[in-house]
């Protein structure tokens, strides 16, 4: 091979696969002869066999026949692709069996609609879940290939912005692991969110062309494409039976092209589907216009259509950007609902029981237009009367709210909404009129409450998508106890008064497969050595680790794992940021989307405070600390970008100052992603969860840190409350105002300037930033940040500053006591079981979706024979299948 392995594979995966054997020094025995066969090839299907020799044969076949590469010319990426196809082949049979079982079983299918999916790299995760990691590791070793190198070749699909997208990915994996019949729906963005680069401390965005070399994990499904309409006008008429109907005459029609991803569960045969939609034009270009020489205009339709799925969250601070955002949301909702209806008709032949057989879940407000679209499809396309259509719609749909921020509660101006979706605006007006009439009849509300409940906002006139989702859903949930409480008492109080039974809490969760087995195999091995493998599917059993809490050998092993992970992150920092960090220092991590309410700025103020203390007293007894931040700011969010600039300027000054060398270092890691998170979470000592209380809906990063043994410093916000409840007050560093105290402070007239005047430490820090100490080239650069803090301080940084500084002092004292910190770390991991995504999915199934597991059985574990039988069956039915496809193709012609 042109790239001999120059590094050893990652630590053993013995935590979840038997048969691992290692040398005494921890390295792995390996052969370095490229593509050398060892032993006879079993007579088994190369596309599905699971043994080492068959994997080697399948890999080399894919490299040669699929990619057209010989070993002399194969690149590392070619080998990754060949291995990805090899793994995908072994998922296909399970996937087909899963689909067939769902079609034959009388089961309710979860249809999960999310505009974001942060899937992460697929190769290692799929190997782990399908039980192929150990065999593949050995196969690649025998071929002289470093599996880790191939894993790192994968281009990550960043089809999400943060916690909500990663949550969706975790939930899909958990549904497959729990054998829940489910299909996810989303958008196949041509470009990921964006590639973040830091230039002179500023965030710059570059297109994230994740598809530039193709994607081996998706299967295009052109036969299932659907049409999506925009604009135009509507026409009312009476049909032959005298029934009033409405016909929509659009001025643009876009094609939705589905791509299927395979989602394998861990330790089961289930492989569920994620179907992502790509926008296509009805015709690629106008040949007549092209032949006239107007080449640009000839492809106008294609450009306009494909822009819909070009990028996630196009900037919406312009009218054109807002129009594209709305088009994007409707496109994916319409495609998904048409597909759901098509699948249901295929199985049942009618739609009268759709709400009993499909649980359509809206992951936040982005797919809320589904309420109006499902009504349109049922009434206009399938002939249902209003009342029956509404019963089906409301019975099928459920809604998760993910935010308390008013600006995140989507609204669309009536003019824009009516111009793009005229039929839906008519339907929404009708839904609203009937809903408000019902409210008046039953509750006699005042005009203020009617105005708050209305789907239509006045002054300016707009459609409230959260209200539409509330009215059209049979269940509404928040994602942490505090978040749900605030939804009931404040954000959606009027709806809660009307529909108290619809509201429930479903605290978020994470999958331990991705966030320990894949990202922290050394910890997984240590846990499995004590508990066996059961914890991987039953995370509550981690509590049993507390039996070894006083075991000196176990505690040392625990510290050793953390040290290994810190070493790995330190290497990453050296390679990507050019900084050397002290492994004995506290790794203090805050990684999340950059937003004012998440208060990365408060973290920065603490760093400056530490810096000042060291400058004044170089011999001060301060615990060495490496402060690491990472996260992206929305392209149009200028304040967040200025915060990133400040953090980088502080890092530059601190890291270059010889007076603080070895005591304090600040690192900003660019382009945060799932794969970067896999480096970060296992290495963290301290987890910063410092949002203002009452603003973070839940958080999932806090759970990933906890599961990997980090200790949290945080406010009583989101899931922090439950984390503290689980680990105990003594194992959580709490500071800051509580949610009700924030409300009281602001209602009594919060004056942030008084905190500045009365706190010398705070005054010194703010004056330094304001005077240009950290921006000598532009002394007034950070004046806007200081002005916001002193005049408004919307997120109470100044009120929480001193409690935060005091709490950080407690953190230092605890970290310097190695045994105490080890105990806190073990307890945090041991008590993280509640935060499993499996627990959350079980609650959704029981309380909201009302569905249950369906076991996928393989008739014979020799998948080669079974897949051969399936191929023979397909071949025998080819005449019938080809006729169906031809007929389907004709019926779907534009």
Write a concise keyword list for the protein shown above:
disordered C terminus, alpha/beta, 894 residues, 36 helices, ten-stranded mixed sheet
Give an overview of the whole structure:
It is built from 36 helices and 25 strands. With 894 residues, the chain is α/β, with parallel strands linked by helices. Strands 1, 4, 7, 8, 11, 12, 13, 14, 18 and 19 form a ten-stranded mixed sheet that branches. A six-stranded parallel sheet has the order 22-21-20-23-24-25, with helices on both faces. The longest helix is centred in the middle third of the chain and has 30 residues, at 319-348. Helix 1 packs across helix 2 and helix 2 crosses helix 3.
